[in-house]
Write a structure and sequence with these properties.
This protein has 6 helices and 11 strands. It has helices spanning about 25-30, 35-55, 120-130, 130-140, 140-165, 165-175; strands at about 1-10, 65, 70-75, 85-90, 95-105, 110-115, 175, 185, 195-205, 210-215, 220-225. The chain has a 4-stranded mixed β-sheet, covered by helices on one side. It has a 3-stranded antiparallel β-sheet with strand order 6-10-9, covered by helices on one side. Strands 2-3 form a two-stranded antiparallel ribbon. It is globular.
């Protein structure tokens, strides 16, 4: 059974790793709001490094492509062949966190969600989650219910990434079974997955829910080392080349 490393790190406020980004990624970075840059650079550099290790390439040589705001893919590789990978990032300039996982055995999806106390989670869960899940959440104390809500959201969004689906559809149609104390799929996903590995964890000091799903049996090795660093002036080292 494959052990898949699930790596979670604080976003680097100094934008370390931008030297291995492609020209297209630098263009994307230069067009971003300053607050979104650290998490993007950290996540993309982590992904390039992990894929480079798998493929035997320098991180900068990994042929990552992205069409608009869509899915990131490897040029020349089909979605049905390894490496399978997923990336997620959350938070703003001061508290951004990034996560990456790469697998060989089967498709995977990951997501990280920081609990936002401003979100009316009961209202969202009642409207967007399956009735059986809402029945459980509605009877829980507020703090515990909020934590479970964001954990379920992270799991469902992980399935979205694994199957390249639509979030609103997956929130309603991915139904999770709680009966034996572990989470499992109660019904097949919109993409047809009926049995999956579902991993979840909560990092209380950062109010962070992390989740990974896989279309086969795997073990998950969580490598969560979130060391925050001090903010400094936006250190872009490359300017956009749009129009060149």
């Amino acid at each position: 059974m494959e052990a898949v490393k699930f790596k979670v790190r604080a976003a680097d406020q100094a934008l370390g790793g931008q030297d291995i980004l492609s020209p297209a990624e630098h263009d994307r970075l230069a067009g971003m709001h300053e607050g979104a840059r650290p998490a993007f650079v950290t996540a993309r550099a982590m992904l390039r490094t992990a894929l480079g290790d798998y493929m035997g390439l320098m991180p900068s040589a990994v042929p990552l492509l992205q069409e608009g705001a869509g899915r990131v893919f490897i040029d020349g590789f089909d979605d049905s062949e390894p490496p399978f990978y997923s990336v997620s990032h959350t938070g703003g300039a001061e508290d951004g966190i990034a996560a990456v996982a790469v697998a060989e055995t089967c498709p995977i999806g990951i997501d990280i969600q920081q609990i936002d106390p401003a979100v009316n989670w009961r209202r969202v869960a009642e409207r967007r989650f399956p009735d059986a899940e809402w029945a459980i959440l509605s009877g829980m104390p507020d703090e515990e219910g909020r934590m479970l809500f964001f954990t379920l959201w992270a799991i469902k969004e992980s399935f979205v990434k694994m199957e390249d689906g639509n979030l609103m559809t997956y929130l309603r149609e991915v139904e999770l079974d709680f009966t034996d104390g572990n989470l499992a799929l109660a019904t097949p996903t919109p993409g047809g997955c009926s049995k999956a590995t579902i991993f979840f964890h909560f990092v209380p000091e950062f109010q962070l829910a992390v989740a990974m799903v896989a279309a086969c049996d795997i073990t998950v090795a969580l490598d969560c080392d979130i060391q925050t660093n001090q903010r400094r002036a936006d250190p872009l080292s490359h300017t956009a080349t749009v129009g060149e």
